[in-house]
């Protein structure tokens, strides 16, 4: 099991006022919209602005990934924020929500951790049928050994033609991404708490983090909030989710979710069908090149290149949003991370 939290980030206290002098003019300068983020210029937090501006110019010139926005947090401070306009497409600014699609799954993972912290979920390896006795299909011979851990790691094999191993030993199962498995996690949370994931997140995550502008898609059948997708937040608020994880579950001096859950959920538990990624508990685990080797990170990922990336070794959170699939359909935002953003932190 590979663990990426080798460096524990300090818990940051956020204020609505800027830190120090106003940021110098230039690319990606954030504006204070009084949403709780402290703001400085990127160079004051050790970033090379020339690289960031080269990235900005490349995106605006159509030579790099067609992202809608990029937000960078360094040492708990908002240091870079840029929004990009495209013809015949909805465009965004700092006050606009952006659909996170499957980044929703990682927020649901935090809710599982909170439920475990409160003793509402006691055993990740208990059969999920014990939580959902009314789901008759879960008692079938090929599903009665499926546990919450399998759902969290996308290894339950639901919705596939293959039958899971009769013994269903965890080490022998394989990763297969499936929205239905996260929907079952949401159903378990509703069973043990009596509340939907939208209400749980509002009470236990959004309110403490000062996230106020929220939309969560609900199924037209029954009005149930979806767990696998559908959460829309401002890019800066997606960054708050990332900072909460970087802070090992703490925010403004309060422990929102235990540090042990953050460590467990963002550790690699299973290999995926994508060579560049591992998977934790609804978090993707990846790495970027560095002069000294590699830099590990965890990320919430969603359709159309939504990414909230937590990079402990650089004390950094990076958010990308996009309203359409990026050029070449090969996650080029990670190229932006590897070629511009991370090198901007280098001391060389």
From TrEMBL:
Keyword DNA-binding applies: no
Domain Beta-lactamase-related: start-end pairs: 70-336
InterPro entries, per the entry: Beta-lactam-related, Beta-lactam/transpept-like, Diverse_Enzym_Activities
Gene Ontology molecular function terms on file: hydrolase activity
Signal peptide: 1-21
Claim: Iron is one of the keywords in the record: no
Pfam families in the cross-refs: Beta-lactamase
This protein's UniProt keywords: Hydrolase, Signal
Protein name: Serine hydrolase
The species this protein was found in: Bradyrhizobium campsiandrae
């Amino acid at each position: 099991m590979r663990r990426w939290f080798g460096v524990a980030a300090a818990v940051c206290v956020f204020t609505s006022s800027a830190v120090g002098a106003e940021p110098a003019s230039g690319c990606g300068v954030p504006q204070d919209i009084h949403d709780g983020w402290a703001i400085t210029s990127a160079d004051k937090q050790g970033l090379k602005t020339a690289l960031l501006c080269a990235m900005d110019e490349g995106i605006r010139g159509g030579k790099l990934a067609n992202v809608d926005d990029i937000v960078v947090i360094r040492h708990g401070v908002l240091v870079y924020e840029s929004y990009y306009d495209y013809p015949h497409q909805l465009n965004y600014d700092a006050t606009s929500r952006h659909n996170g699609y499957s980044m929703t799954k990682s927020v649901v993972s935090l809710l599982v951790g909170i439920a475990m912290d409160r003793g509402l979920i006691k055993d990740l390896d208990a059969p999920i049928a014990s939580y959902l006795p009314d789901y008759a299909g879960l008692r079938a011979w090929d599903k009665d050994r499926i546990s919450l851990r399998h759902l969290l790691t996308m290894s339950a094999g639901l919705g596939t033609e293959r039958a899971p191993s009769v013994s269903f030993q965890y080490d022998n199962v394989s990763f297969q991404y499936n929205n239905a498995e996260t929907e079952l996690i949401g159903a378990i949370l509703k069973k043990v708490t009596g509340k939907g994931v939208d209400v749980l997140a509002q009470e236990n995550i959004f309110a403490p983090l000062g996230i106020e502008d929220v939309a969560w898609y609900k199924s037209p059948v029954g009005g149930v909030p979806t767990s696998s997708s559908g959460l829309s937040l401002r890019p800066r608020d997606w960054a708050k989710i990332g900072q909460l994880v970087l802070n090992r579950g703490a925010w403004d001096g309060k422990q929102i979710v235990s540090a042990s859950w953050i460590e467990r959920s963002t550790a690699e538990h299973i290999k995926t069908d994508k060579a560049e990624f591992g998977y934790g508990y609804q978090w993707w685990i990846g790495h970027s090149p560095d002069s000294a080797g590699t830099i590990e990170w965890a990320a919430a990922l969603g359709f159309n290149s939504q990414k909230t990336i937590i990079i402990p070794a650089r004390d950094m959170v990076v958010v990308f949003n996009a309203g359409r699939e990026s050029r070449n359909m090969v996650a080029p935002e990670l190229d932006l991370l590897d070629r511009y953003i991370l090198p901007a932190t280098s001391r060389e």
